[in-house]
Specification:
Keywords: Membrane, Transmembrane, Transmembrane helix. This is PF06674 domain protein. It comes from Leptospira weilii str. Ecochallenge. The chain is globular. It is built from 6 helices and 15 strands. It has 2 domains: 121 residues, no CATH class; 121 residues, no CATH class. Helices cover 22% and strands 35% of the residues.
Length: 274
């Protein structure tokens, strides 16, 4: 009898606790729901201020392209300061001038990949060198006004190689976290790839592959590396270096906590979600 009571009471407590957490994680009071459910955004036409009709001006209605522009503008304070755009595309206000950056690159510096109606993954080029490139990624959700953005950070590992003699070598992996780590995103598989060549021919370097969690946050799932540049096992940037040694992905409790679903609980032996 008492066990049934405590089980019931515990379920009630967990219900209200998870509801509280859900509300806290939900839409703040300063946000309001939008009716925007776009599946495609092309910069700049779908993400800029343009001429408005008198009715829209009078009613102060925000257009999707304007909401997008405001979101990108608010995200700028979080962007890394050591990317190429800081040298070639800063405006007088100290922010990135995307049009100037486009003129420098000869192509659009920013792209959007659909994650569902009104949800996107944004991509911004950080640096491009002779044989390596890295990009910045962020989540963009225009289902609210103002739209919500989140700069993504990627967990990876820096390799060091200590060779004492021909028969003895020790490879160490040092954890790092970066927001400009990724070479490219594969929309067909929804994966991020970080492939860093130690030299142009691609016979040595490090390779990291990430998949999205339920919250669309990156989860490291594959590590490969070849530290000796010996002219063999060369790969291009769009290939998987399948013959390179694969390393086990270390368990990362910080990443696990960031991806855990706090809005579910167990009740009477069954998993339920709010």
């Amino acid at each position: 009898m008492y066990s049934i009571f405590f089980l019931f009471f515990g379920g009630i407590v967990l219900f209200f606790l998870n509801t509280f957490l859900f509300v806290r994680k939900g839409v703040p009071a300063s946000y309001k729901q939008s009716l925007f459910r776009r599946n495609k955004i092309d910069w700049p036409s779908d993400c800029e201020y343009s001429a408005r009709s008198k009715d829209l001006v009078a009613e102060k209605i925000k257009l999707p392209a304007e909401v997008c522009t405001d979101a990108i503008d608010s995200l700028q304070s979080e962007l890394p300061k050591d990317c190429e755009y800081n040298n070639v595309a800063l405006g007088e206000d100290g922010k990135i001038d995307l049009y100037r950056y486009r003129d420098f690159l000869g192509r659009a510096p920013i792209r959007f990949f659909s994650l569902g109606k009104g949800e996107f993954l944004g991509e911004l080029l950080c640096d491009a060198t002779a044989y390596n490139e890295n990009r910045i990624y962020f989540l963009y959700d225009e289902r609210t006004i103002p739209a919500k953005t989140k700069l993504l950070k990627f967990i990876a590992y820096e390799f060091s190689w200590n060779r004492n003699d021909e028969a003895s070598e020790k490879i160490r992996m040092k954890r790092l976290e970066s927001d400009r780590w990724i070479r490219y995103y594969k929309p067909e598989t929804k994966e991020w790839i970080a492939f860093f060549k130690f030299r142009g021919m691609g016979d040595c370097g490090t390779y990291f592959r990430y998949q999205p969690s339920e919250q669309n946050l990156p989860v490291l799932v594959e590590i490969r590396a070849k530290l000796e540049c010996d002219g063999t096992e060369a790969y291009s940037a769009d290939e998987v270096p399948i013959t390179w040694k694969q390393y086990e992905v270390p368990f990362d409790w910080k990443e696990w906590i960031s991806n855990v679903n706090l809005t579910s609980f167990a009740c009477n032996g069954r998993q339920k979600s709010l």
